[in-house]
Amino acid sequence: MGTAEIIPGVSGGTVALIVGIYERLIDAITQAFVFAFTLLRFDKQAIGSQFKKIDWSLIIPLLIGMVSAIVMLAQLLEYLLETYPVECRGVFFGLITASVAIPWLRIEHKNAGSFLLVVLAAGFAFFATGLSPQEIADPSYPQIFGGAMIAICAMIVPGVSGAFLLLVMGLYAPTMSALNARDLPYIATFMAGAATGIGAFSRLLKWLLDKYHDVTMAILAGLMIGSLRALWPWQQCEEIMIPGKDEPKIANCQMLLPSESDPVSMVILLAVGGFLLVASVLWWEHRQNKAAPK
């Protein structure tokens, strides 16, 4: 999930769905947020009770893994995305395409309304991922805090990329630079905004999953389909300078068909490999569930 969160177009929520911890993760985040509010009230009796409700066996290893991935892989992924952008998008395209089946298969009662929600959500995501990214050279702390609040919500929404939202808001490049430079004030501000945003949004998402599970899953499937626009391997991006300023720059990207000089065969192989990886995980999960005692 940590690796996914630093790749524009890929959602950590999708990874949570793939490995089968999605609903458990939403519940754990919600309980942690309630615990934080209990601490602020200084209710000693409630603090102990709420602390035990948190799924620490999920939260602790998940946080360690995510932080480790972000710290260790930020520079490597930045290099790969800049050096092999087409090949990288090919892998991600295959991964997400196969992942669409995950929320769709979790819809218990499929009907015409389910298909309509998928189409509408896909259209929204397709439009959103076509928004022009921009860049803020020196973001203020309120901008960092607010941007983190918005982007982190995508961590738990499959098909919506937190890194892409940072791109749209102009905070992706500054955030990656801050991580690589170990800019502690920037990182602390970002983490504070992220904690606030994910805590508030997780409660809403948990309520939706409890009350409108099939509707929520249909929307998530649609968001994942629409987000494939950002991962189409062959894109042409044009940088536009804002009048009177050297920065920020806005990059408009259009989907293209591959040319003869493009590594089409390699991209297809990578996409198929990503697709088969997710498909194999789904097959393994299906076998585990089938073998589990009723």
Describe this structure as you would to a colleague:
It is a single chain. The chain has 294 residues and is mainly alpha-helical. It has one domain. The protein is built from 14 helices and two strands. Strands 1-2 form a two-stranded antiparallel sheet. The chain is globular and about 70 Å long. The model has no long low-confidence stretch (mean pLDDT 80).
In a nutshell, what does this entry contain?
This protein has helices spanning 2-5, 12-18, 22-41, 44-53, 56-83, 85-99, 101-105, 112-128, 141-153, 162-169, 172-181, 184-211, 213-226, 264-291; strands spanning 235-241, 249-255. It is mainly alpha-helical.
Helix content: over 70%
Distance between the termini: 30 Å
Main sheet summary: 2 strands, antiparallel
β-strand amount:
under 5%
Question: What is the number of helices?
Answer: 14
List the strand order in the largest sheet.
Answer: 1-2
E-strand count: 2
Q: Write down the overall geometry.
A: globular
Number of structurally distinct domains: 1
| Poorly predicted runs of 5 or more residues | none
Structural class: mainly alpha
Average pLDDT confidence is 80
- Order of SSEs, N→C? HHHHHHHHHHHHHEEH
Calculate Rg over CA atoms: 20 Å
Give the secondary structure arrangement, pairings included:
Layout (H helix, E strand, L loop, with lengths): L1 H4 L6 H7 L3 H20 L2 H10 L2 H28 L1 H15 L1 H5 L6 H17 L12 H13 L8 H8 L2 H10 L2 H28 L1 H14 L8 E7 L7 E7 L8 H28 L3
Antiparallel strand pairs: 1-2
Helix pairs in contact: 3-4, 3-12, 5-6, 6-14, 8-13, 9-10, 9-12, 12-13
